[in-house]
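Components:
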Amino acid sequence: NAGVTQTPKFRILKIGQSMTLQCTQDMNHNYMYWYRQDPGMGLKLIYYSVGAGITDKGEVPNGYNVSRSTTEDFPLRLELAAPSQTSVYFCASSQIGQGRNTIYFGEGSWLTVV
Amino acid sequence: AQSVTQLDSQVPVFEEAPVELRCNYSSSVSVYLFWYVQYPNQGLQLLLKYLSGSTLVKGINGFEAEFNKSQTSFHLRKPSVHISDTAEYFCAVSRDDKIIFGKGTRLHILP
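Structure:
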């Protein structure tokens, strides 16, 4: 039962470097999401996608980019990493929309920018 | 606009004691309500959800929540907690395709 798989689990970046967080799901879900979680702040939506080829901004999209070329994959790209992007990142997916259906989360990626 | 307020950032409770984690929401329309649990160093997983029907919802691991429309609340309860319930709990409200998470309540189980 793979579910939502994201890599890497841990990464340290230097300021100004770029990287991609990979996310794949094997449940054939049409919706996928990227969240960041900071201590005491809950979850903030970065980007989401309602299907292959379609992406949209969430609450905190600045400094990030996404693509959705297939149903399964939804990578998150950080360009020019900044200390403010130090956070835990979660990829998630759901069957239709968040309104009624359960969201399935990956196990998280811990990113530190130094 | 919808919003979710979790009134306690941390709740300490002795093992085998009951616990209630509070959640209030604001919305001018009907919404769906969720509780998610996050165990240390893991992602969130669904604990229970209210979509319609009975206002008392039972979830996994002995948790339950009651939807109270007049008080716009969806408090989470468990009659007897175990050390394995140590986690962070998130209330969430959803309408259409948007979901809003609360800031979380960290449950500390004291021996």
